[in-house]
Description:
Elements: H1 12-60, H2 65-68, E1 71-75, E2 81-85, E3 93-100, E4 106-108, E5 133-139, E6 152-156, H3 163-173, E7 176-181, E8 186-191, E9 203-206, H4 208-212, H5 219-224, E10 228-229, E11 234-238, E12 241-245, E13 249-252, E14 255-259, E15 275-281, H6 283-308, H7 321-325, H8 329-339, H9 348-361, E16 365-367, E17 370-372, E18 379-381, E19 391-393, H10 395-404, H11 406-414, H12 425-444, H13 455-508
Antiparallel strand pairs: 1-15, 2-14, 3-11, 3-15, 4-8, 4-10, 5-6, 5-9, 7-8, 11-12, 13-14, 16-17, 18-19
Amino acid sequence: MRITGLASGMDTESMIKDLMKAQRIPLDKITQKKQYTEWQLEDYRSINRKLNDFSNNLFDTMMKQSTFLAKTVNVSSPDAVSIKSVSGTSEFSGTISVSRLASQASMQSNDSIGKNIDTKLTMSKLGYIGTTGSVTINAIDAGGDLKAENTKTIIFDPSTDTLESVLKKINSESGVSAFYDSFSGKIAMTAKNSGNVVGDVEMQVSGDLATFFNLSTNNVIAEQDGNGKSGVNSKFIFNGLETERSSNSFQINGFEISLKQVTTDPTDSSKTNSVSFSSAPDTDKIVDAVKKFVDNYNKLIEELNAKVREVKYRDFQPLSTEQKADMKEKEIELWEEKAKSGTLKNESILTSMLQSMRSALNSVVEGTSGTLRLSDIGITTSKDYLTNGKLEIDETKLREAINADPNKVYEVFAKPGSTEKDTGLASKIRTSIIQSRTKLTDKAGITGAPNSTFSIGRLLKGYDDQITRFEARLKTIESRYYKQFSAMESAIQRANAQSAQLTNAFSNN
């Protein structure tokens, strides 16, 4: 705490503060530059994130062949058979008749283990003997095979595990579903996967728990004893070929077929109701994907063009803490809105990328059916120069192109190629974005990156160093001012003391 001005009567504290304000002007300018650079950094990173999102979306949609090969399948009897395209690349049509649906193998206890048992009682209380327990189960897999490597051994503690918890472990850890039937007092097990394993069983059970549950060692023995059944394959005729599958759902040529009902009388082959089916391009789905790409592209270039053309208000510099203290909140908001404007005006990385993307969309692709352009599928660049290259869609022409050859539409966007002419337009755009993002990352880094790893970060570090040095210098100057004013006060005190002595001396005479 300093007490000043006692001898001189001057407000030296305020005088020093005013003197220091003048000294702080260069520091305020450095602080303003730092603040503006931080705003720039935020804008660079925001643009970089938007480019990353657009690039990822481009890769997940317009660069995937499956987007353009989406198909609808018309089925004459969808209640009996359903068909959908998963990865089909060619048209799919014909007939299918179902003579048998697939079913799972099952088995039940040979004798009751007790009716109306409280399933929350521990296994020990239910009469299970032994301090530890286990059951080993193997069941048919989704491929229709019984493999040794699929064998699961479930371990439980009879003193703490209840019948309910043991069954839950079996259901979650093995290839079977098990439950206790309180009416019959039996345990029932059903294979999770359907089908018949030729020359083998579909379910095997062993261990102390299997004995306690009165279960046979496999479903074939259980069936012989009247307490089980074997799995059954689905049986059908597909385009004249009689065949089987272990499941009612399977794939042929990239199309998923689900059998729901028998369409053929198993006792009279003449009573066959064939289900016909045929595929076609899913035009609506493909059009929606192209529309979404165009909308996202137009939104992106609109935002980028707005940034590189944003007005820069040079008279509106970042506010200092002292300036903000004298302003209202709304005034600060309006001031900073203009101060932040133009941080990326004429940014060379962005302007170059915009030009590169526009050139890519106006280029040609050497497809398998000849030279292709966006205009061939109904997409053109707007003639309004104020839109800065936004795309427009002629939906009628786009639908015609999809119906005629969806692969052609795919090649326009994402045809893989070894040269620029062979490469699809979306691939060219993504390449341009990736290259630009690398430059933006070198300049502005990513969130959490050390300042030393990118150019703006190094610039900010330089400002921080300047501010630290300048603040140390200001402390030295302020101390010097106080010493100087203190010396002045001391001199005035001495002068006043001498004046008083002289006055006293003359008054005594």
